[in-house]
Amino acid sequence: MGRFSAWAQDRAEKTFLGQEEELPYLVDNSEIPSTQSKGLRFRLSQNLDDKDYTRRPAPFGSVVRGTLSDDGKWLKVKKRW
Fold this sequence. Notes:
two-stranded antiparallel ribbon, about 15% helix, 3-stranded antiparallel sheet
């Protein structure tokens, strides 16, 4: 298991999925290495194809604050996913 996967699993076990409190999350690409992208693009909805081109991607290595979705698969940062 990669560094991020272990961290995410530990985080999910320690937090209530769907919680309302914003918590810090590391933007990390150790599980999905990319040579072209310098960050993670936000989505307008929980659809991978619904990319938000009005905001810059969150740079890898940065920390964002957000809330987990009820299923724990998405992180909501303000009004974006």
